[in-house]
């Protein structure tokens, strides 16, 4: 099932049919477009709920778990976002539709831990939605390691990645990170802090690169430092990317996706490479 997303994501694995997905939307035109696109690209049949009552009935009528929901923020009978709140209260992973990009609306959605949000006024809205769904349904195939001596930072990054359906391991220092990498050959991405006691992010990256290339493991460095030359030092140590804190969710997720997309493209081009 070949699929090429708007951002360059490539997927050619097994059919994604079988996952129960709800589309909570009252526009006939939009539901028709989404239904056709998801069936064409991903072989997914979505359940459509056109109002809040239909959403509640859909949840109550079946014991089959809802893998993912796509919801408009305003529906008949739920003009104040009740449908979105209902889904999130049930801990159902949800992608939200919003009419335009408003800072207040964006902050509200991020605070509610939605998987993603799609701007309906974008000409590529349906294609972006298809890619977001494909990523969510396949992200569990990726194992990510977070390395940070701060428990708060580890928890924050871990929760962000798990929201996107990644498998996540954490390490509080470089020594532990090396132990986890040795025991878990399926880790494809490491996100490491720069400033850590005993072994900083540079030294950790150098030790990893002595035995493991970028075709096996991508490394993103992060730091709260104001020293912009850290990125150059990190890249010269063997890192693949670098982000200065504080960063926003969309930027972080984009960098993670880009590095994993590159990893898969490299591996798929090798005769003995591993395929997702």
From TrEMBL:
<dbReference type="Pfam" id="PF00072">
    <property type="entry name" value="Response_reg"/>
</dbReference>
<feature type="domain" description="Response regulatory">
    <location>
        <begin position="143"/>
        <end position="260"/>
    </location>
</feature>
<keyword id="KW-0597">Phosphoprotein</keyword>
<dbReference type="InterPro" id="IPR050595">
    <property type="entry name" value="Bact_response_regulator"/>
</dbReference>
<dbReference type="GO" id="GO:0000160">
    <property type="term" value="P:phosphorelay signal transduction system"/>
</dbReference>
<feature type="modified residue" description="4-aspartylphosphate">
    <location>
        <position position="193"/>
    </location>
</feature>
<dbReference type="InterPro" id="IPR001789">
    <property type="entry name" value="Sig_transdc_resp-reg_receiver"/>
</dbReference>
<protein>
    <submittedName>
        <fullName>Response regulator receiver domain-containing protein</fullName>
    </submittedName>
</protein>
<dbReference type="InterPro" id="IPR011006">
    <property type="entry name" value="CheY-like_superfamily"/>
</dbReference>
<keyword id="KW-0804">Transcription</keyword>
<keyword id="KW-0805">Transcription regulation</keyword>
<feature type="domain" description="Response regulatory">
    <location>
        <begin position="20"/>
        <end position="135"/>
    </location>
</feature>
